[in-house]
Predict the structure.
Amino acid sequence: MKKNLETLCVQAGWTPKKGEPRVLPIYQSTTFKYETSEQMARLFDLEDEGYFYTRLANPTNDAVAAKINALEGGVGCVLTSSGQAANFYAIFNICQAGDHFITSNTIYGGTFNLFGVTMKKLGIECTFVDPEWDDERIEAAFQENTKCFFGETISNPGGNVFDIERFAKLAHKHGVPLIVDNTFATPINCRPFEWGCDIVTHSTTKYMDGHATQVGGAVIDSGNFDWDAYSNKYPGLCAPDDSYHGLTYTKAFGKKAYITKLVTQLMRDLGSIPAPQNSFLLNLGLETLHLRMPRHCENAQIVAEWLEKNPLVSWVNYCGLKSSKSYELAQKYLPNGSCGVIAFGIKGSREEAIRFMDNLDFISIVTHVADARTCVLHPASHTHRQLSDEQLREAGVAPDLIRLSVGIENVNDIIADLEQAMSKM
Ligand SMILES: *Cc1c(COP(=O)(O)O)cnc(C)c1O
């Protein structure tokens, strides 16, 4: 039976049989028992499916991965220990030393650093492009050795919306897949595969969990990219793997080649798995994702409109506002709402912004975003505090930028808290 997103949030992934627990159990076990040596050998030869070691597969993790896979509409999903690990694995599964990829330059700071600094040390080069450039300028970034294109549905913290359909077409024209980090939109508000994206990643730490209880990530494959059509470019998928009995992933696993390789090679060798306990917590969050997201969006829209009218506020960026340069793209890709994260500036100096935040009552100052509780962060005095105002502008972070992550409390209380904090500035 085909189910809608709301039903999948609650039901997908765990379907207990007679006498089994109704709630997904936490299989907090590193290892799994077999009756004969032969049974175990067949697992290692990939001839039978079954659990043997939690680094490679665990029933709790698999059930939650299956739920996220159903929500995104993929052929397979792997959970990782963080969003950082998810983005690293998504790229490293098809790139090796000497390869190149292209990314939007308006991406999360942690990913920016991973791509520009750490992956460079592994010999993988990355070109950062501005998604507002025209096609000709973007296409100039493609090289012989380019292996994929990367962007975020809604960028963190800028809130820019990525033109998924346009970049999928450009990537495919040059014979590479499009990878999209769908963390802020979640599959409730956007399913990038429907717009031609090939691989989706998530930091499940954010809205998917929604309660700030676990750090995690996910990689989901649409199964749509035809690796064999570019077999010279993707030898890891299309040529025999010596570390796996000479097996060729595309031949052995078809549409599941990419995601199977990610588990059998990268998880086996690098091991960034989530604890089953964390996957259990993530699953509890997912059960209400379809209820929380609309409330985050509804509250954020009201708060953004209130901020825009406030004389103490110099600017507001939220893609639900007509004044946002992402408004049109948001209407196309996020017709039911985007997310709860707003960026805005307070008139005056850095000190003024700090005084505003210190005056807040229940809205807390935390490094996190995208959970049930409203919170703020001032990059100039927190994540980027070592930079001068000039260096901040060069890094694309306005010195007065405040990132407000609107939660699911009563919106009148959120506005009242912002208002009393501003009145004391
Ligand atoms: C937070 C975040 C990440 C990194 O995820 P972690 O779970 O913190 O490792 C990646 N991408 C986006 C868009 C994020 O917001």
